[in-house]
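Standup notes, protein team

Yesterday: finished cleaning the Spirodela intermedia set.
Today: EF-hand domain-containing protein structure.
Blockers: none.

Input for EF-hand domain-containing protein:
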Amino acid sequence: MAIKQFRLHRMATDMTLDEFKNWLKKFDDNNDGRISEEELRNATRSVGCWFSTWRSSRGIRKADFDGNKFVDDDELENLAAFAHRVLGIRIVP
């Protein structure tokens, strides 16, 4: 029996921090200005990322410094660093 290999799909794109924020805001379904785990999961799925449930949970844990289980506007830079590692999004000046 052969074992299939698969590659992790990554966006591999450059964005400014403002473009990254605007991209994420498209997934803020309830318009509360915060990104929930479900909203982040939808964002990662939109770019074809594998294991989006696990990755979104991990992304929230890494970026959410105040522990409210949401990524607020002041925590988006933390999420941008995570998105660089996981999705291949590079934040440029």
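Follow-up from PR in the comments: Residues 52-63 form the longest helix (12 residues).
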